[in-house]
Amino acid sequence: MLKVFVIEDAEATRLNVERLIGQEEGLQLCGSAAVLTTARALLSAQPPDVVVVALRDGRADLVQAVKEVVPSARIVATGVDESDDVIDQAIGFGAVKYLPKPYGAEELLAALR
């Protein structure tokens, strides 16, 4: 069972992602938060296998901040910014994938696995 944590400030998106993970065989939602400051303690208490993190305002350094808390986790970054700079920075900070918003359920599930 792959444990997934979601950090997403848009509540509707966060709830949709949580629901998708909860319905998918082989995936387990181990927590979620709107912002990284709230997520830190939760991530430390139950380290996930994968973290989905929404990058606000092109802040690719959020990937690095998550990696500092859970270095073993794979990070899937999402965001509205599709510039090469932000994508390259997110990957450079340790994201395994960058999904531009809006993304589809199948895209997210493929990135999680």
Task: Describe the protein in words.
The protein starts with a strand and ends with a helix. It has helices at residues 11-23, 36-45, 61-69, 84-92, 105-112; strands at residues 2-7, 27-33, 50-54, 74-79, 95-100. The relative contact order is 0.19. A five-stranded parallel beta sheet has the order 2-1-3-4-5, with helices on both faces. Helices cover 43% and strands 27% of the residues. It has a single domain, classed as Rossmann fold (3-Layer(aba) Sandwich). By secondary structure, the chain is of the alpha/beta class. The protein contains five helices and five strands, in the order E-H-E-H-E-H-E-H-E-H.
In short:
The chain contains five helices and five strands, in the order βαβαβαβαβα. The chain is an alpha/beta fold and 113 residues long.
Topology:
Layout: E1 2-7, H1 11-23, E2 27-33, H2 36-45, E3 50-54, H3 61-69, E4 74-79, H4 84-92, E5 95-100, H5 105-112
Give short descriptive properties of this protein.
alpha/beta; globular; about 110 residues; Rossmann fold; 5-stranded parallel beta sheet
The tally of domains stands at 1
End-to-end distance: 11 Å
Unreliable residue stretches: none
> Which CATH top level class fits?
Alpha Beta
Largest sheet: 5 strands, parallel
CATH topology: Rossmann fold
- What is the β-strand count? 5
Assembly type: single chain
Q: Could you say what the CATH architecture is?
A: 3-Layer(aba) Sandwich
> Overall pLDDT, averaged?
95
Give the overall shape, derived from the CA principal axes: globular
Class derived from helix and strand content: alpha/beta
CA radius of gyration: 12 Å
User: What count of helical segments does DSSP give?
Assistant: 5
| Main β-sheet, spatial strand arrangement | 2-1-3-4-5
Instruction: Estimate the strand proportion.
Output: 25-35%
Task: Give the helix proportion (percent range).
Answer: 40-55%
The CATH homology group name: Response regulator
Write the H/E string, N to C.
EHEHEHEHEH
